[in-house]
């Protein structure tokens, strides 16, 4: 683990190892640590099987209702949850795969990724971050995001 990765994990640990977690602060720290501008944290509501937003940053206000509750299998977060693996787009604005929902383009982000938050194979939610420029996340960054998701899941599962 390089210095930057260790620093990210230490900062995130500081926010998560509290009795009451401010998920907005956690998300802001993750976004900043990956030099992004936008992001979401969704927790899985096991009763409804919907991903419910816990924190968001950089999302236009008119889009917030559309991402408040996401069905498994819909959009980047829903597909990451369904597949239990990261879903990434180098440029969401030009993507025509159908993975991103049409409204997602309204965020004006380009390089984006959604990762499942898993602990011992159990899904607890998703974490998504994005940049305003085309970008492919490195394998180290993806690994770090999965690790952060695992830490968040460990807290949520308590």
Automatic annotation (TrEMBL):
<feature type="domain" description="GAF">
    <location>
        <begin position="24"/>
        <end position="150"/>
    </location>
</feature>
<dbReference type="InterPro" id="IPR029016">
    <property type="entry name" value="GAF-like_dom_sf"/>
</dbReference>
<protein>
    <submittedName>
        <fullName>GAF domain-containing protein</fullName>
    </submittedName>
</protein>
<dbReference type="InterPro" id="IPR003018">
    <property type="entry name" value="GAF"/>
</dbReference>
<dbReference type="Pfam" id="PF13185">
    <property type="entry name" value="GAF_2"/>
</dbReference>
